[in-house]
TrEMBL record:
GO terms for cellular component: cytoplasm. GO terms for biological process: catecholamine metabolic process; xenobiotic metabolic process. Residues 51-300 form the Sulfotransferase domain. Signal peptide: none annotated. It is found in: Cytoplasm. GO terms for molecular function: estrone sulfotransferase activity. It holds the Pfam family Sulfotransfer_1. Its EC number is 2.8.2.-. Belongs to the sulfotransferase 1 family. Coiled coil: none annotated. This is Sulfotransferase. Keywords: Catecholamine metabolism, Cytoplasm, Transferase.
Length: 309
């Protein structure tokens, strides 16, 4: 993508920012989605990917941008400059997103790209367009422990002026537990992809594993994609995708999105990226209540989440 096209994406967001609003949630097959997505659902569901396309799926704030950057660097053999050709949402379009014109939708961006494409989604498994599975596309799913995911999503909803007003922290915990946030229930989300991972050849990763040993997880992604890069390139990718470096990378930190849409003064898009930050937010009473509800909602799932590393 040329520099002119790259600038035009940021300019499009700037021009549309005056009409940005906190979109209400509308359920699609029981899953609450922002109205801008729900009202454009038919073409999203009908999307037909190329078999060579790669899907990166996560619940919001579970390591999506991190994984997108790792994949882009693997594809470009660790070439940092090649991966600064455009902001993340242009290099790896957000499948279901729809925004006010002139911001291109995810589908609009995908139409301008030749396969193989790297496609991002937050859709739960049951809402992923069936073409991905019919065409046997590869998919990477990243899951983050519920408490840290909740904290990160709360701060994101405070700064993201397109999603419903988060309200106070204590109330947000209950919304999370009830699945009343954009893209629905975290519990259903992580379980849906877990159950289907072997049948659909989904690479299921954990955010905590990526923090604990990023090199090991980058190598797992590389092998899954049937790629081979040198140990030196792997080391370079690990360094380039460290939280510190990504937070300072304007092509990855969403600084291209202006304050009327993402208010970075409220909370940066890349805030802490830590495992265990939930302990700075949950009171002992909130933690106990959450843990009891978690046990009920996850009793039938044997997913090895860790809240500390």
């Amino acid at each position: 993508m040329s520099e002119k096209e790259e600038i035009s994406y940021s300019e499009a967001i700037q021009k549309a920012s005056a009409s940005i609003t906190r979109f209400p949630l509308i359920p699609i097959r029981g899953v609450p989605l922002m109205s801008c997505i729900a009202q454009n659902w038919d073409p999203i569901w009908a999307f037909r990917p190329d078999p060579s396309d790669l899907l990166i799926a996560t619940y919001p704030k579970a390591g999506t941008t991190w994984t997108q950057e790792i994949v882009d660097l693997l594809i470009h053999n660790g070439d940092a400059e090649a991966c600064k050709r455009a902001p993340t949402p242009v290099r790896s379009p957000f499948l279901e997103i729809h925004s006010p014109p002139p911001i291109p939708s995810g589908l609009d961006l995908l139409k301008t790209m030749d396969p193989p494409r790297v496609i991002k989604t937050h859709l739960p498994f049951q809402l992923v367009p069936p073409g991905f599975w019919e065409n046997k596309c590869k998919a990477i799913y990243v899951a983050r422990n519920a408490k840290d995911n909740l904290v990160s999503y709360y701060h994101f909803d405070c700064m993201n002026k397109t999603q419903p007003e988060p309200g106070p922290w204590d109330g947000y915990i209950h919304k999370f537990m009830r699945g009343e946030l954009s893209w629905g229930s975290w519990y259903d989300h992580v379980k849906g992809y877990w159950v289907e991972r072997e049948k659909r050849n989904i690479l299921y990763l954990f955010y905590e594993d990526m923090k604990e040993n990023p090199r090991r997880e980058v190598e797992r992604i590389m092998r899954y994609l049937d790629m081979s890069v040198s140990d030196e390139v792997i080391s370079k990718i690990v360094e380039l995708t460290s939280f510190k470096n990504m937070k300072e990378n304007p092509m990855a930190n969403y600084s291209c999105v202006p304050a009327p849409v993402f208010d970075h003064s409220v909370s940066p898009f890349m805030r802490k990226g830590e495992v265990g930050d939930w302990k700075n937010h949950f009171t002992p009473e909130q933690s106990k209540m959450f843990d009891e509800d978690y046990e009920k909602q996850m009793k039938d799932a044997n997913i090895p989440f860790r809240t500390l590393i």
